[in-house]
Amino acid sequence: MLPPQPSPVRFEHLPDGLGIGVASPRLTWTLPAGTGRQVSYELELERRGDIRRTGRVDSAEQVLVPWPGAPLTSRERATVRVRVWTSDATGPSQWSTPRDVEAGLLGAGDWQAVPVGADWDEDPEGERRPARVRKDFRLDRPVARARLYVTAHGLYEVEINGHRVGDDALAPGWTVYPHRLRYRTHDVTAHLTEGANTVGAWLGDGWYRGKYGFDGGTRNIYGTDQSLIAQLEVEYDDGTVHVVATDRTWKAAAGPILTSGLYEGETFDARLHDPAWATPSAAGTGGWTPVRTGARDTATLVAPLGPPVRCTEEVTPVTVTPTGDGRHLLDFGQNLVGRLRVTVDGPAGTALTLRHAEVLQDGELATRPLREATSVDTLILSGAGPLTWEPRFTLHGFRYAEISGWPGAMTTGQVTARVYHTDMRRTGWFECSDPLVNRLHENVVWSMRGNFVDLPTDCPQRDERLGWTGDIQVFAPTASFLYDCAGLLDSWLTDVGREQLPDGTIPWYVPVIPGEPMWTPIHPGAAWGDVATLTPWTLFRRYGDLELLRRHYPMAKAWVELVERLAGPSRLWDTGVQLGDWLDPAAPPDDPAAGRTDRYLVATAYFAHSARHLALAAAELGFEADAERYAALAAEAADAFRRRYVLPSARLASDSATAYAIALAFDLLTPEQRGPAADRLAEIVLADGARISTGFVGTPLICDALTDNGHLDVAYRLLLQTECPSWLYTVTMGATTIWERWDSLRPDGTLNPGGMTSFNHYALGAVADWLHRVVGGITATAPGCRRLSFRPRPGGGINWARVRHDTPYGTAALSWELTATGMTADITVPEGCTATVELPGCAPLALGPGAHVLDTAELGAAA
Predict the structure, then answer these.
(1) What is the secondary structure of 528-541 as a DSSP string?
(2) Are 181 and 495 in contact (CB under 8 A)?
(3) Which of 779, 726, 219 is nearest to 477 (CA)?
(4) Which of 354, 624, 664, 697 has the highest local Cβ count within 10 Å?
(5) Which 3 state secondary structure label does DSSP give 795?
(6) Quick one: CA torsion of 679, 685, 686, 689, rounded to 10 degrees?
(7) What is the pLDDT of residues 370-410, one digit of tens each?
(8) Which residues contact 471 (CB under 8 A, 6 or more apart)?
(9) 264, 266, 740, 831: the active-site residue
(10) Could you tell me which residue, 281 or 800, shows the higher pLDDT?
(11) How confident is the model over 675-680, as a mean pLDDT?
(12) How far apart, in whole angstroms, are the C-alpha atoms of residue 746 and residue 750?
């Protein structure tokens, strides 16, 4: 019997193949259920009417398989399909459904477009009214195919003939613009018509020139112009090509957006808006003036490595409460990141003011945590009838909104919160018998969504929203389980490498913007700088992408060699600026680095840990000399750690939970020291009533340190604690996201007085990785999840759990339940993978692909 067809191929880590920036994109496919193990494959490539096949390739590889032909050239389109031979079939499978891939503009010389924007005087230090730009053109023959390649200095939204192009938001996103400016390719064939056409774009300041950063922010970080860079290529039915590129023939005019900022919000005057502005019918309208052209090194224009930011969900308010003084207070029931969309009708000149906040204080919006991010949108009505509107070039973090000036009564259907984040594919799910733990996990998911807005940010609501390196370093294992974030993080890590200083220093956050006095000038710091070594390794293990590991290896190597120089012959990194166990709950509100753990203990531990992982990466890449050198360096740093920080009693010089967790989790102790150190860790936890005493460094490690060293019960005590500080304390206080501080909201209902108090900050949610592996029971034991371990370790009164992960090879799942005689488990092993299952009280058992139902009572009897 022939096996059914495999899935359509995927290209790199992209959701589709349009406008790909890789000339030889790697291919991935999954096998249909019940086909066992692939032994061979054949690829078919159709390009320019020519069909070529690889012939049968004896290989079990099906993830990131090399491109089977000559590299694509710019704009070239190919169609790919695959068939496979499996161990349980007599012949090849059916061919997969064909999937198209099309290269973007791969060379700097492919670009004709130049930046165009308004040519009027502006105050570069003040708020500037955004412009719109447009171009009228004619097409004198039927259109066969049309592509728009587009980006901007600032933000853009494009319309052609009055219709929006694409559905991405805050495009082109935020990269290190001088080195990498992302463009996106759109198929706009259906937008065009023979005869008169118009293309136009809304422009916004965004990260490029808007006010951004700490203490009032900095304007014009990358430039003072606000410009569109667009190239529309129209292929006629006779094969000729007509190009409409941004140049001096375009026109500009002020639009109805009066002000716009990522922190500040947006003001829109509907009286100034002509809905037909980007159509040929508006060609004779006044106010359009010649554009100013600029310059751009087209070698810096790059195609995306991952999906764009989009609206992924709409949330209606659970309550709308009139306040009696012309305001309405809306509760959406969920702290989210996005914008409000309103449908409203009223007299011309009516102004609606939309304010946002994550929490309430005394029944009013608590805006102090926003600091200088005012987060206010204003809509001025035209009086021309009902209007549906939402801002374009801003984003807010909020659960509550207050709307002033609404004409008449408001209903829940008139206001919707639209949720925005990078449109990653969901890949991980977890639930168990404890509803508080389920809400905790859901909070982690929402915090990841709110903070993965083109890059991994620290908070989505206040005047910050930066790509902090330490935060994603600890959260990457959780993130890469929950969502396919390989493309997003690969792109961001590329920028980390761009921002790395010549001496190897990794910035605190990337992209780098001014942050005086604490963050500028940049200092090397443990845990934050170690993103260079640890996060590429995490992504390699999760996705099996060896080339990703190779691309970022020079960055990792430069970082470890910097720390080696700083530590010197002693191998102790005991100098410089260190954040230690940031936000230890014992640290004072105004000094988050002043925790209980010696910050240089943390630094030396991370030195050993990073050097060890650099050695592992070198071994995977075949750099044998490097592997030996960095393994030896890691051993020297671990030995130095023991000499300086481990007492003869096996206690640590810094007698804190984080110190023991890091020493155990990073394997820095001798076998004789591990038992006493683990016992001391458990003792510390229990002495404080199993409340949390760790910050950003210790929190992701402590449950594993306890679990792997004989104190699983104590790890569950920590997880299930509801007194402050604890994970579930926040849940009992109504949290719907992860908080930055354990007590962002104090037990008496007051806000933490610290100036750094966010209610949406994923770092402390890194415990979800432990939930997936220990409570749920799924662990990847080979790159790309090719081998898996199913080993649930119940405790804490949790009597069932379900966990599922869409690996590169397919879905892995485990559902277990405690019974009167032991445990039952339903297990799914992806096709092409192998697994080991170890249920409580039973010997390990090897499993192949497919569905398996196990019962410990039967396994025990069989043994």
Answers:
(1) TTTHHHHHHHHHHH
(2) no
(3) 779
(4) 697
(5) coil
(6) 180
(7) 999 999 999 999 999 999 999 999 999 999 999 999 998 89
(8) 456, 458, 696, 761, 762, 763
(9) 740
(10) 800
(11) 98
(12) 5
Rounded to whole angstroms, how far apart are CA atoms 759 and 743? 10
pLDDT score of 815: 98
pLDDT at 284: 63
3-class DSSP assignment, residue 647:
coil
Nearest to 557 by CA among 568, 545, 565, 569: 565
Cα 193 from Cα 289, distance rounded (Å): 26
- In angstroms, how far apart are the furthest CA atoms of the chain? 87
pLDDT at 1: 54
From the list 252, 259, 245, the residue with the least C-alpha distance to 292 is 252
* Parallel/antiparallel/unpaired status of strands 360-361 and 319-322: unpaired
Q: What pTM was estimated for this model as a whole?
A: 0.97
Is-contact 369 757, C-beta < 8 A?
yes
* 674 contact partners, CB below 8 Å, separation of at least 6: 664, 709
How wide is the angle at C-alpha 748 spanned by C-alphas 747 and 750, nearest 5°?
Answer: 100
What is the C-alpha to C-alpha distance for residues 841 and 219, in angstroms, rounded to an integer? Answer: 62
Catalytic residue of the set 12, 233, 264, 464: 464
Tokens of 519: 């963050």
Q: Which residues of 426-459 are buried (b: 16+ CB within 10 A; e: fewer)?
A: ebbbbbbbbeebbbbbbbbbbbbbbbbbbbbbbb
Instruction: Please choose, from the candidates 524, 529, 518, 516, the residue with its C-alpha nearest in 3D space to the C-alpha of residue 470.
Output: 529
Report which of 393, 454, 495 is spatially closest to residue 178, judged by C-alpha positions.
495
Position of tokens 């003084």?
325
**DSSP letter string over 488-531?**
HHHHHHHHHHHHS-TTSPPPSBSS----TTTTSS----TTTTTH
Residue appearing with tokens 């690889």? 54
Q: What is the pLDDT of residues 732-791, one digit of tens each?
A: 999 999 999 999 999 999 999 988 999 999 999 999 999 999 999 999 999 999 999 999
d(CA 751, CA 731): 16
Residue 279, both tokens:
């159509």
Q: How far is Cα 339 from Cα 419, in angstroms, rounded to an integer?
A: 7
Rounded CA separation 674/693 (Å): 20
Q: Is 564 among the residues known to form the active site? A: no
Residues whose CB falls within 8 Å of the CB of residue 354, separated by 6 or more in sequence, listed in order? 265, 340, 342, 376, 377, 378, 379, 401, 402, 403
Burial class of residue 546 (count of CB atoms within 10 Å of its CB; 0-12, 13-18, 19+): middle
Provide DSSP, 375-397: -EEEEE--SSS-EEE--SS--EE
First to last CA, the chain: 36
Distance CA 156, CA 172 (A): 7
Closest CA to 260 of 128, 76, 85: 128
Q: Identity (one letter) of the amino acid at 138?
A: R
Q: How far does Cα 769 stand from its chain's mean position?
A: 16
Question: What are the angstrom distances between the C-alpha of 418 and each of 307, 332, 341, 398?
Answer: 18, 11, 7, 11
Residue with tokens 């309405």, as numbered in its chain? 328
| Joined tokens for residue 235 | 């292929």
- Residue 6 token pair: 């495999």
How far, CA to CA in Å, does 507 sit from each of 493, 510, 559, 630? 12, 7, 11, 23
How long a stretch of residues is the chain?
A: 863
Measured CA to CA, the distance from residue 578 to residue 593 in angstroms comes to 8
Q: Note if 464 is an active site residue.
A: yes
- Tell me the pLDDT tens digit for each residue of 352-362: 999 999 999 99
